[in-house]
Design a protein that fits this description.
Elements lengths: L5 E7 L6 E9 L3 E5 L13 H4 L4 E5 L19 H14 L5 E6 L1 H12 L4 E7 L4 H6 L3 H6 L2 H4 L6 H7 L2 H13 L7 H11 L2 H14 L2 H12 L7 E6 L11 H5 L6 E6 L5 H4 L1 H13 L1
Parallel strand pairs: 3-4, 3-5, 5-6, 6-7, 7-8
Antiparallel strand pairs: 1-2, 2-4
Helix pairs in contact: 2-3
Length: 295
């Protein structure tokens, strides 16, 4: 997995508080950073990153608290999308890349959205996979969405409630998440699954992942509302991909229409997949990413 890539561990510092970022780096050409989502790690890109590395420098990190990156102390603000975005901007600077494209899935897509808003001079292009904007999700809750996104309301509960409940059988719960959101566990390779299990078996990492969701319901939501009130849009070209068999495209509002209220230049399409597009349908994801990144 990630043959020809090198592993790096970089200490980053910024106003939101630093940490250690673990990443794999490979290829040559225009830089692109790939950001994973919950409950995974950089390993979710194992079928996409090597192909992109044929004509790009690919950086696939673990977000703070996930995978093999550091686990900063602190409350939800330590796990905001702004803090996570600043980690990755600092990582790219230390690797020598001042401007780059960013692709994010799930929570990584929300980090990419925040990064494009906070660092428009650095982000050349952005792609988000299987998400709607955070404010839109919370402002559009009905029975259908609350049932599908129950974790958005369970994970932010005060600790140690979700920590204790998930900790009763964490590997079973991890498999349930990967299976239910992806339709089955068939899309997860044995090596990737072992990596996800190692991280999820660690109570400190599970707590960090829950802090991510607590931040999403508080700090991040406030930041997004402030941006919306100020009329701030993503100015970089934005590609939106979503699973045709997932939840994102099933609501009453069109996916691209919603994103066009958040970004100036939006294009995208559905992929024949559930939630984990890059693992379920890597060829389809690559077919959409390649022309977008090379434009």
């Amino acid at each position: 997995m990630f043959d020809g890539f090198r592993r790096v561990d970089v200490d980053v510092e910024h106003d939101a508080g630093g940490t250690r970022v673990h990443a794999v780096v490979g290829g040559d050409g225009p830089p692109v950073i790939l950001l994973h989502g919950f409950p995974e790690s950089h390993m979710m890109w194992h079928a996409v990153a090597p192909e992109l590395a044929a004509d790009h420098t690919v950086v696939a990190p673990d977000l703070r608290g996930y995978g093999e990156s550091g686990i900063p102390a602190g409350g939800p603000e330590a796990y905001s999308f702004r803090a996570m975005a600043d980690d990755q901007v600092a990582l790219m600077a230390q690797l020598g890349y001042e401007r780059f494209a960013v692709v994010g899935h799930d929570r990584g897509g929300r980090v990419a959205h925040r990064m494009a808003l906070d660092h428009p001079d650095l982000v050349q292009r952005a792609a988000v996979l299987d998400i709607m904007p955070t404010t839109h999700v919370y402002d559009s809750v009905d029975q259908r969405l609350a049932t599908a996104y129950y974790h958005w309301f369970f994970y932010p509960q005060p600790e140690p409630v979700p920590e204790r409940l998930i900790g009763a059988d964490p590997i079973w719960y991890l498999h349930m998440l990967l299976g239910s959101w992806g339709g089955s566990l068939d899309h997860v390779t044995a090596e990737a699954l072992a990596g996800y299990e190692r991280a999820f078996a660690d109570p400190a990492r599970r707590h960090a992942m829950l802090q991510d969701y607590r931040a999403g319901a508080t700090v991040d939501l406030a930041l997004d509302r402030a941006d919306a009130a100020a009329g701030r849009l993503v100015t970089a070209p934005l590609l939106v991909l979503w699973g045709a068999r997932g939840v994102v495209g099933t609501g009453p509002d069109g996916v691209l229409e919603v994103w066009r209220t958040r970004a100036a230049d939006v294009r995208g399409q559905a992929v024949d997949a559930a939630h984990f597009l890059a693992e379920e349908r890597p060829a389809d994801v690559l077919a959409a990413l390649r022309p977008f990144l090379q434009a």
